Amino acid sequence: MEKLMKRLCVKATIPIMCALLPVSAVYAEAPAQMQTVVADGSYEMSLDESLGESLKTAKIRARLEALRAASEQAGVYIAAQSVVQDGVLTQDDVRLLSSTVLRVQEETYTTKAVGGKSLRVTCRIRADVTATDIDRALIERDKDAQRWRLLAEQNRALAKELARVQQENAEIRAAYAQAQTPEERKRLAEQALQNQQAVEALDFVTRGNAYLDLEEYDEAVAAYSEAIRLNPDLLIAYNNRGVAYLSNPWDFLIDQAIEDFSIVLRKAPDAIETLKSRAFAYLKRGSEVVGGSSAIWDFDEVIRLRPGDASAYNGRGYVYAAIGRTQQALADYTKAIELAPETVTYYINRAQLYYELGDYAASYQDAKQAKTLLGPVKWRRFKNQDAEYMRRENQQIGIDRLLNDLDRLHGYR
Fold it and tell me: Which domain holds residue 384?
């Protein structure tokens, strides 16, 4: 738990809802390479036992609001740091970075009775943001700009769901206060209980995301499973549990990942990122066709749904390359580069394929272009993270090693 606290982060920023009280956040003194943020979030729970609000859920609501405030304040520091290092970021970049790199060091809770009818629960969070974590997150952005944009979309989607649950709670409480009959109050109390379960489920999703960041996959699976128990319709929990299964080194969990992705796709057949994840799960399982579907078919569907999705072409190209259909792989990598010419990963993949095909001149040009796109500072970061890059992206060779081979073995420099 102590380790989780040091990396616990919410995967989305949450708009302030009317059921939540105002929050405050201030910077604390910290070393030059680290910013510490102290943020408060409050929630006022009803003491009417018939409404059934629990202190546990009230603390969760207060903590989520404190995280929102901390994330917002961290964004100011991130924007300033990024202007110095990489140029001005978009608002979505800042929001996604702040929700990803925020390290919660301490959570404290206080309660105060308000007028004898409610209890104000306040959560104070002390969190750090380090330049190193910003650096690592920017590596991910540099490797695949389109995937980064899709993560930003998912970030907004989770924020929207959290906001919906909080707004629903405010409406239930307002209606309960005006209810005239026992039957109406009973119905609203049941809705309030369901809402509590929904917010608890989302809290487990954020905790699962934190474990996933820490690469503690068993703990992530347990958190997502608890979210699913509380809210069986929460598709993001199935999707992220599938990612945790897929990321686990034990191959026997791949089928469970495929099943989780399939649950999502049965209810949301146009969930593009889930289609991509299932495609790579099929590939990792070592069979082109599994259970009536395949990696190629899933990427085909992504491209049908979003013809301009460069990452889908890149993914399908990776599958084609893995099963030896090299000319189709080359065509897909080229299409991905045409659609997203600033994405470094696509050049690296094509450079490696050209190398394997013996076209060393073309491999060299793509490798040099990848290095140029990253720029001096970015290239230094990227090179230092080569082992992590290879592991996460299943690349067969780092770009620096590829350039060395081209120079040493084939005379390209």
Answer: 307-413
Instruction: Give the pLDDT confidence of 358-387 residue by residue, as tens digits.
Output: 888 888 889 888 878 766 544 444 444 444
Residue 169 near residue 53 (C-beta atoms within 8 A): no
Span 201-226, pLDDT tens digits: 999 998 888 788 778 899 999 999 99
pLDDT, average across residues 134-145: 69
- Please count the other Cβ atoms lying within 10 Å of the Cβ belonging to residue 392: 13
- Mean pLDDT of all residues in the chain? 78
pLDDT for residue 337: 96
pLDDT category at 407 given cuts 50, 70, 90 is low
| CATH for 334 | 1.25.40.10
46 in helix, strand or coil?
strand
Does 29 or 118 have the greater pLDDT score? 118
CA distance 204 to 213: 14
How far is it, in rounded angstroms, from Cα 348 to Cα 386? 13
Burial of 225 by CB count in 10 Å (0-12 exposed, 13-18 middle, 19+ buried)?
middle
Would you say residue 150 lies in a domain?
Answer: no
Sequence-ordered alpha helix ranges (H) in 121-234: 131-143, 145-178, 182-213, 217-230
65: in domain:
no
316 domain-assigned: yes
DSSP 337-404: HHH-TT-HHHHHHHHHHHHHHT-HHHHHHHHHHHHHHHHHHHHHHHHHTHHHHHHHHT-SS-HHHHHH
**How many CA within 13 A on the CB side of residue 226?**
16
pLDDT band at 287 (very low <50, low <70, confident <90, very high): low
- Residue 130's φ and ψ, nearest 5 degrees, are -110, 150
For residues 253 and 217, give the distance between their C-alpha atoms in angstroms, rounded to a whole number. 11
Residue 396's alpha-carbon distances to 150, 290, 389, in angstroms, are 25, 25, 10
Q: Is 14 part of any domain?
A: no
For residue 261, CA distances in Å to 201, 243, 257, 271, 273 come to: 19, 9, 6, 10, 10
1 in helix, strand or coil?
A: coil
Exposure class string for 291-323: b at 16+ Cβ within 10 A, else e: eebbbbbbbebbbeeeeebbbbbbbbbbbbbee
Give counts: helices (H), strands (E), the chain. Answer: 17, 6
Q: Report the C-alpha gap between 315 and 206 in whole angstroms.
A: 27
